TrEMBL record:
Gene Ontology molecular functions: DNA binding; DNA-binding transcription factor activity
IclR-ED domain span: 84-250
Record bears the keyword Zinc: no
Name this polypeptide is given: IclR family transcriptional regulator
One of the GO biological process terms: negative regulation of DNA-templated transcription
Length: 250
């Protein structure tokens, strides 16, 4: 039986079909390769066998995924899931949820405003915990709400510590710059005023786990009329103190 040198499949053998989900061929191929490598390690020949792609095409896409740290090469030459997958996934943990549930109401009492905890979820931010004042006009963000990374103080925090590849994808359409993200990393606080919504303002600080990894953003938000022109200055001390108390539990 002959062998097709382009993809190492036996001549006449049925080749696997990569689902055309998005209509963008290279994206569908990349996601399919990522999914099979995430399931178990593969070498290039195995990727070709499972995808039916020519060797050169499979290699080019796999190397691109490797450069984005979505997959990485092991000592034996096989590709396995890379660190960027974990970095892009929400890091919600029972400890974070329990600490937030216990400590956010106290922060509401101090600030008299709505407070939230956000985590990075792909190219969005996900509200994983919140607390609201009992009365008055407020910025209500229900738990499990997904929001853009292009604007807002929490977005700045999450993107500032995100992989470079994510930063490069977000910054061209963001309301902030790379220079501002550097300031956020240095000061460990961010703010936005009338940005995501003309009537709202917010301030946010990072939450770090015991390894020093940024795992979430703690935010306070409310009407511009109450938050003022510099919500970071107004609420920074309360945010930092609450973030430190949450970190003790992580």
């Amino acid at each position: 039986m002959g062998v097709d040198p382009g993809n190492a499949h036996p001549a006449g053998a049925e080749k696997p079909d990569i689902p055309a989900i998005s209509g963008i061929q290279v994206l569908d191929r990349a996601v399919y390769i990522l999914s099979i490598i995430a399931a178990r390690p593969h070498n290039l020949s195995e990727v070709c066998d499972e995808t039916g792609l020519p060797r050169a095409t499979a290699h080019r896409i796999s190397v691109a995924l490797e450069k984005h740290r979505l997959i990485e090469r092991q000592a034996d030459g096989q590709w396995t899931a890379g660190p960027a997958l974990a970095e892009l996934a929400p890091r919600t943990s029972p400890r974070l949820e329990e600490a937030a549930e216990h400590l956010l109401p106290k922060l509401v009492e101090q600030t008299k405003e709505s407070v939230q905890v956000y985590q990075l979820s792909g190219f969005e931010r996900l509200c994983v915990a919140n607390a609201e004042p009992a009365t008055g006009l407020r910025d209500t963000v229900p738990r499990n709400t997904r929001m853009t990374l292009n604007a807002g103080s929490a977005a700045r925090i999450l993107v500032a510590w995100a992989p470079v590849s994510l930063q490069q994808a977000v910054l061209p359409t963001a309301a902030y710059s790379a220079a501002e993200l550097e300031r956020v990393r240095q000061t460990q606080i961010s703010e936005s005023v009338a940005e995501r919504d003309a009537s709202l303002a917010s301030a946010s600080v990072p939450i770090f786990d015991s390894t020093g990894t940024m795992v979430a953003a703690l935010s306070v938000s409310g009407p511009v009329a109450r938050m003022g022109d510099s919500p970071a200055e107004k609420f920074g001390d309360a945010l930092r103190q609450t973030a430190k108390e949450i970190e003790i539990h992580l």
